[in-house]
Structures
1.
Amino acid sequence: MNFALSDEQEFLREAARDALGRVATLAAARDALEDPAAILDLWPVAVKAGWPGLLISEPAGGAGLGTFDALLVAERLGAVLARVPFIGLMPATALLDRAAHPCLEAVATGERRPVFVPARPPVSGAESWTVEDGHGRSAPAPRVIRSGAHPRLDGQAAYVIDAPDADLLVVAATDATGSPVAAVVDAMQVQPVAAYDASRSVGHVTFDNVPAELLDVDSAELTDAWYLVQALIAAEAVGTVEAALGVSVSYAKDRYAFGRAIGSYQAVKHEIVEVLRRLENARALQFYAGWARDSRPAEFPLAASAARSVAGNALDFAARAMINVHGGIGATWEHDAPLVFRRAQLTRRLAGGHADATYRVGQAVLHNPRLVTAA
Amino acid sequence: MNFALSDEQEFLREAARDALGRVATLAAARDALEDPAAILDLWPVAVKAGWPGLLISEPAGGAGLGTFDALLVAERLGAVLARVPFIGLMPATALLDRAAHPCLEAVATGERRPVFVPARPPVSGAESWTVEDGHGRSAPAPRVIRSGAHPRLDGQAAYVIDAPDADLLVVAATDATGSPVAAVVDAMQVQPVAAYDASRSVGHVTFDNVPAELLDVDSAELTDAWYLVQALIAAEAVGTVEAALGVSVSYAKDRYAFGRAIGSYQAVKHEIVEVLRRLENARALQFYAGWARDSRPAEFPLAASAARSVAGNALDFAARAMINVHGGIGATWEHDAPLVFRRAQLTRRLAGGHADATYRVGQAVLHNPRLVTAA
Amino acid sequence: MDLDDTPDQAAWRTEVRQWLARHQSDAPPARGDFEDPAYVEVRRSWQRSLTEAGLVGVTWPEEHGGRGRGPVDQVIINQEMARAGVPGHLDVIGIGLMGPCIIAHGSDEQRARYLAPMLHGDEVWCQLFSEPAAGSDLAGVQTRAVEQADGSWRLTGQKVWTTSAQFAAFGMCLARTDPDAVKHQGLTMFIVPMDAPGITVRGLRQISGEAEFNEVFLDDVTVTDDMVVGGVRGGWKAALTVLMFERMMIGAGAETIGFRPDRVATALAAAGADDPRVCHRLGELTAELLAVRYGGFRSLTALSRGQIPGPEAGLAKITTVNALIAAADLVCDTLGPGALTDEEWGYMTSFLPGLKSAGGTEQILRTTIGERVLGLPAEPRVDKGVPFRELRTRQIAEVAA
Amino acid sequence: MDLDDTPDQAAWRTEVRQWLARHQSDAPPARGDFEDPAYVEVRRSWQRSLTEAGLVGVTWPEEHGGRGRGPVDQVIINQEMARAGVPGHLDVIGIGLMGPCIIAHGSDEQRARYLAPMLHGDEVWCQLFSEPAAGSDLAGVQTRAVEQADGSWRLTGQKVWTTSAQFAAFGMCLARTDPDAVKHQGLTMFIVPMDAPGITVRGLRQISGEAEFNEVFLDDVTVTDDMVVGGVRGGWKAALTVLMFERMMIGAGAETIGFRPDRVATALAAAGADDPRVCHRLGELTAELLAVRYGGFRSLTALSRGQIPGPEAGLAKITTVNALIAAADLVCDTLGPGALTDEEWGYMTSFLPGLKSAGGTEQILRTTIGERVLGLPAEPRVDKGVPFRELRTRQIAEVAA
């Protein structure tokens, strides 16, 4: 039993921290709220760090690393609210790699940027694969039409993470029978969405009967891709919570009221400790999810859903605690706390939403209580 | 506008406090957990105080008081966990009074004790009237059969508050069409239930095709009776929370740790203030419910449900806070906190349960948002 | 026990309603941009009309231009304004807090000079109390006022969380005149003309991006000695009066702080009424908001009987803010990410977290209520009895640690 | 990064499992009434069998009868016992806490005398630390130990929350030997024979009605000077060792404190699986319990690398207790009032609230973690540096107030 980072993983995490430490991501996140031109293009940073090839196997030009490593990078991106299109990238590369797609080398070098358009797998057999309709409701996933000589893709999906400016989309779609298929398209309309959190790129995609290439992946692999998105969102949140905790702790040490550092008051101290408690829990589940995908794939849906649920709640709590600890100043535009708050609020509602993840944990154990039998 | 108690109401409340102050209700509640013989019969206290006739009109021998007054008595009963069969009594007397039933005088004098067997009115038109089945699920309300010369009643209801030892039951039943009717029976089987909270009398009732007398009350009046139960449970909880708050405050002043009274620590202080906040909210809704039933009957279902929801949560919180403030000692058998805790846990699950009340508030405003438009 | 108007209140309501029916068409929109001088101007002229109709400062004594009415009558005005969909008077701070402070602590000259223009909206007021290092701990203000040889005072410091500063004529400024006194005792209250040399006003943008508040910098601002309110070293007493009136404003029902629960319910009904989770969460927060409303009627009854509300009035604010946060959260969960960029829900989501600490953090409120209302023992105060000058905010705690 | 056994761990697991397969039929039931001497006796003899098989105290050094193994090997035993549905050793307190304390602070004679009978279950131990007025504030113990002319000590006081006292042979008792020293410095640790004259044990019934703990009264109990562990005035240091091992026990995973989340899920599945509210609440608490489990593996990895867990181990206890409270609440909401009189769910509902303060209140834990782990500044301590004798617990705070 060894449930700790390896030296290589520590190194990967440090390297990510260093690479991102050279960019003023927080300032950019703030400025971009008013001026889209202030958005920093961090793709070169990602390419230089080798992140596009992280999950791509070595023969195909990638690094052949594991899920756990991807989550560590996501965590570091979250810590500085870096606008790297990583959540859309990882599942796309994983699927392309499974299918040994010819574009892999160009993807690994960062020449072409793929993005995954996720669809929610059904919880029970009676349901179907769905996407966001843009109004908080579910809509059918895009459909692959095989009537002509070449397959074509039709349909749409709202609030797709990282979709704007992608070079190609790897779409979780369904065929005429409702079975999931993965379709690759490069002729899509992406309408960028003015986001509440400018450090996150989001867009609505529309496929108007466009030519598509089908990937040789199965239903389990598309299900896995959905949960990989959940795990990445969770890991990213872990990094953000850790950063928010650090800022809150410093302020509580430095700020005085009634003659005492405010961190000496139980109300402040206990709220900050609650952030720590939630952070530790979220990180434990990040580890669980990272380990499960590669070692216990049958548990990965549970692990990823639990990770997202706990990390999403932790981030919401940490953002609000950060504002509370800072008093009024924490709610002003110039402060970093609102950026964390915006990140928390938007991300909680993306990719099925945090409530869907929590619901899936409940469903999983109701249907199979043995999943939580003590080991 | 005058949203305060009248002098008469203050007097009624004080009189109830005095009457109950002469009985060791808490000791009895504890002893009865082990020895049912230790149960105190408080009916004579209730009769002497005139509570059976509280809602009965004056010509019929009652006091002709209002809902608000009944809630004040319930509040005082809750403050000392008095085992007076008041929650079952009030709606029964209200229905008997509406129907000008001949037994009213005997009821007002305490000679005969009626108890209401409530049924849950449907939230939407598609649903039916239901009772508890004893396993957390709903079952159809007892049915009135009119085939013979006299109506008969058949069916059952579990966990009926105050049912054991009642002289007659006023039953919310349905007729062959599913419409609600009120049936009075005195030939019932009541199986007392060993209760988690020995200060509360609860029983399962079974009607095995027994003769029943139908009351001349309508669907609205039976609906009102259900919500009156909710309001009474809420008011009773307000009294219990107030008492628990008082004990917690005293202990927090007297108990020292690390050289300071524990009430000087923010964690303890803020938890106790949270009890106060919830108490004030619950009391405001007790007032609302008491006022609405007589002055804005259309709002009474909302008011009673809101009161029960907030008061039930307040009681659960207050009981747990009382245990927490007292540290380990608060969780021992000899302490009063466990009695409050047992009261909270059992009562939250009776008469539809607190969650049903909360749900009804949500349903009410979803269907009619104007209910919460600022006045 | 009833919520119906007394005959007198009913008559008053009719009077208000009839006036509004006649003048409603002259009213400006209820929401607008206070950074826009034109909007401020129409609101100012609307206040003037209201004042001329006797609908501003109705709880002020008649001798000071008010109508000597009870708080319920003010609530009736608020209700009728809301019903008609028109805004109330522009200078909420002046009419609600600064006027009463001048009435209570000001000199006859001050009352004669300031109250009438305040009522008419000719001179709007702002409150210069909080500072970056003195928010919840208000008595810790560091803005210095130094007496000059001619009896005038020079003020230097920084204030924050100031509403209306960008168009106010005067500010009521709490400043330290005696740093050798212990902290509550060395304070004095000054009237400061906002156009005085040395004053800089800077908008302070909130999470939403809007500048709800301002920072006000005072750099050697000179005020004459007739601007002292309540006497030199009487500042804390005057400040307490303002805080009490602040509680009365809450007690009289700032029920939903501008957000309407019926709109929340309507939005949810359109989107997710079939989900029991939505229904349950809506039920929980609605019940809390109803409690605040009916608790408000209890406070108002007490207020109308002359009882001064205690710090427990703050509980209503805690409940309201948290219930509205839950409401915004529920709407966004149900309507999805689009709600965050919707004008109403996005603004609500962004506005509320800041409101939690407005007027002192929730935690300070709970401490105050625990000590003053429940009589729980106070925390050890390391700053008690220490001259402010020695209270180097950092060092004292280090000594104590 | 993996949770699989190393070859060595796998071999150990096989060894344990094989032994259990052979002896499982001799095991007593995993739950029983410790008030019943017959049950205690079968548990005692089961511990003896386990010890003879080398399955008790495996993390103790070999020279003291242990096997010098790592904490993961102990966890493997726990897992295999749970898997086989048999109980572990009877004397959890002795093996987990008191033995290690004697190993760390005891004399050679004490080790020779006490460790072996403890391992074999011949002499069970209890922990006499907490007192009615010294729970979370453990260093405030008031039990007095006065030295006699012959070098022996006489102990008088009252202890509380003592597990196993009714059948223990010895108690490890923290007592005050020097009331003139400041509070942490005047303490000494004693071994007390539980059959000594002057000792009274009284069961302390919990909400559930069961006596999970005892009160122990010491009335002039004489112990000889060779019963001092860790030297006179060395009591606090010895106590800290015990507290550290307590954290290690938590760190090694007291995951569900005897309650099984899979049973919760099974009960709910049978009753209310179709309600999304149930599903959501179950999801929330399950996720928290999963976090504790996998966080436990992280702690265990650190532990097996020789890292001593800090106070943050207490976070797992906070999470577990609160998640289980939520679980009991959910079961009772879903199954209705009958669940409260059900043996399993009623017991769970009643047991958990007391557990919240067991081992120090949740609030003290949060304070400790905030200060020691996050480095947040300490609260002002009014009892610091004051001789215990002068620390009339009441007065000092009144002076400070």
2.
Amino acid sequence: MAELMTLPDAIAELVSDGDSVALEGFTHLIPFAAGHEIIRQGRQDLELIRMTPDLLYDQMIGIGIARRLVFSYGGNPGVGGLHRFRDAIEHDWPRAVEIEEHSHAGMANRYAAGAADLPCAVLRGYVGTDLMARTTVAPITCPFTGERLVAVPALRPDVAIVHAQEADREGNVQLWGIPGVQKEAVLASRRSLITVERIVDELEPRPGGIVIPAWVITAVAEAPGGSRPSYSLGITDRDNDFYRFWDKMSRDREQFTEWMNENVLGLAKR
Amino acid sequence: MAELMTLPDAIAELVSDGDSVALEGFTHLIPFAAGHEIIRQGRQDLELIRMTPDLLYDQMIGIGIARRLVFSYGGNPGVGGLHRFRDAIEHDWPRAVEIEEHSHAGMANRYAAGAADLPCAVLRGYVGTDLMARTTVAPITCPFTGERLVAVPALRPDVAIVHAQEADREGNVQLWGIPGVQKEAVLASRRSLITVERIVDELEPRPGGIVIPAWVITAVAEAPGGSRPSYSLGITDRDNDFYRFWDKMSRDREQFTEWMNENVLGLAKR
Amino acid sequence: MSVATREVTAGETQTIVAARRLRDTKTVFIGVGRPSTAAILARMVHNPELILVYESGTIGAKPFHIPLSIGDGELAETADSIVSVPEMFNYWIGAGRIDVAFLGAAQIDRHANLNSTVIGEYEHPKTRLPGAGGAPEIAASCGEVIVIAPHAKRTFVEKLDFVTTVGHGDGPGARERLGFRGRGPTAVITDLGVLEPEPETCELMLTEIHPGVDVDKVREETGWELRVAEHLETTEPPNDEELEALRDLLDR
Amino acid sequence: MSVATREVTAGETQTIVAARRLRDTKTVFIGVGRPSTAAILARMVHNPELILVYESGTIGAKPFHIPLSIGDGELAETADSIVSVPEMFNYWIGAGRIDVAFLGAAQIDRHANLNSTVIGEYEHPKTRLPGAGGAPEIAASCGEVIVIAPHAKRTFVEKLDFVTTVGHGDGPGARERLGFRGRGPTAVITDLGVLEPEPETCELMLTEIHPGVDVDKVREETGWELRVAEHLETTEPPNDEELEALRDLLDR
């Protein structure tokens, strides 16, 4: 059963150096607060898995705690590129990061296979692209039609971390709005942490509500506003200005480092 | 876009002799009214596809319009067997019916593959059973781990027919409660008919509500009470007494025929 | 009606013994009939935290009445979460998230393999049964399987007419060879007693006998040379709390 | 502000030309940026029934504002249906249910293949771009693809540094050989004109030029020997209704 913990305790208990960690949330419900806590606790050499790295992984990569990145779209949605992600891949700053990239269809099916505890998933994809030679996919033939398909290996992260709107005191979680791959990520992972905007006495069923039962979750932590500058539908709004600000500010290594020191690590301005 | 039609017009237009037809609904929302209309219009030689044939297919088989049956559990849930289904398989009455049977996991994945328009789906299943030699499955090996898995062929019925609580005037459909494989069945089929308890001006989003957009549906027909003796959560209740009654009444061929004549075909009592 | 006034039936004992098995279980997968009654009883008496999972996709259902079908409205109305059938079999059953599965069958062999497909030849069956349903993958993937069946010679057979569901296959190592994750059948609970696989051979052995039942009667109703445990236990009789709860449940 | 008072920009023409392409389209799949603006404009002016599908899982979204991300709250709040990302790619995109997909790219070649992965070598890129996202499967499965890109020599290249997304591959028959269901790119809409694949060769050919643009300018900004249609059309200028709607949309 899910244990209700403070966010620092949950990160301390669930995330270790070297772990493969999937912080998911497809534009919506991105677990920024949990990612920042991982940074503050100084975790190192993480394998970061996420379809859309977004600003959160740009920060984690820029601060140097990522050893490897598994992803399908490394952009700042609607704004442009991710400068820390680029700097790491283009110039190994602050450290070299190994990458494994897929298409969205491939990543989504990798999570689904993980959630079903199957070793792989089968889809139509990748063929004809240069991606095929640069990532882990394999041809597989339909035994009935002979059609050539592509298999992708299941994702089984050590830890999945997602954010949701609410949980009850037993640790049952409800999220609504764009569900992304959060349920698959939680079910595919060995351990899971779900941060929530609020803890309520009882989950009131809602349109579009997806309930993840407490017994498949390792830990639940209250983190109001924990998805900012992303959003939690019905509770907080996406801070689009921050996404634009990040594009300008994060181009410069020093500015970035200073911003992280002040705003995430809580160190005084030099 | 879905066309709003009367149930007779919809059946006349969508279902032809010899078609493969999937009337789905997992205990909940079984489209009895549509099945009865198919019987009344005298369709013949149908391939009937359904995870749980239930009373509806017992009636369609007993009346002699099924050439072939694809299923995974041919029982009267909680009551016992299906006597017309048994009589057809055991004694070819009223006609011989070819069968292809699977496990629930296999059938569910066959629909999912059909909905994704993939030729097959991969799962762990069937191995070690006598079913494997009696149905269409094939071994397939994970190219990453070497694990031996099983592939099942996609289901692509000519027509899917399901029942839902409501539709709007554009033909967008909303159902809630146990969703079964209805969405997969509709998306896997070449044509689709959704019967609904009521047509409303606007679909009001509900907890557990699944909306199937009008543009993937061929026809929508109003059929209040159209799932009886199954049920439509929140609108009608499951008639458990009828399921018990059917177990007694349907054992006898003559009683069955008389009941169908009176209650489905609307013929006078002899 | 007071408990004392009514004899305990063999069926009541069977249901209560099954319910007791769920004392420390987190999640149980159940079909309809006696298994469902036993699981609901367990929530009432032995394990209020027990999570009921039905193949209709209702997770954490809390029925007040015994459902007739696995998809009755009350299961949907009281569930913590409702998922589609493909999700149920892929993300929940196939992934091995369920601790205990209750299964029934028309035929059981000495290695607790099950037949729910046909009596007689497949092509020309004497009796056509409902078929596999979810059983093959449930028995392969759930943590353990508890079989609940009436104890009769035609049910406990030397050889199955059809292997619908693999229990312990042909004996030790069979499940591993087939790549199954779960431990398979750990008990067969009947109206006469309890059979459990003997560890070395995986052959079902009578380990518990219900009060007032004679061992010869059990042997007689078993289609193979039944082995009996050295220290055969007698089932602890249903207590008043269990009986009252069960009868109240059945009267609802 | 009255339309007359402001010059029509090349970008406005590009967006409006893209929107016009959706006049008879049932469903369009869109990423963010200009494609999203064009699709919303099409719903306002050319095709109020147009169904917008975003890869975030929002089907039938009706945004009043131009979303910054493909997952803005307004898309979820106005959608007919919201599905998970696995369902979006398996049941909706992969199954070929979408008629038209708008895609962008950092590089395009003469056969409308696209690069959004790297400029330079993959191992040591000069510029690391975001990557594939949904593009490869979207381009393979949707009914047709319309590429929207700024017309510049560094974008319209002789050879892609990386093939992220297949348009017409190496020419006629390539898509069939790869088993793709969709027709692939039918147009590339730039700020200078419109390029369409010449049927025999699948090579992009300039078929339409925007008002006031010189053909030599287009040749200059294209990294290969650009072919020009025998009967080169001049784009019908944006009309007042289109301009007012677009500017109103951008001002929201």
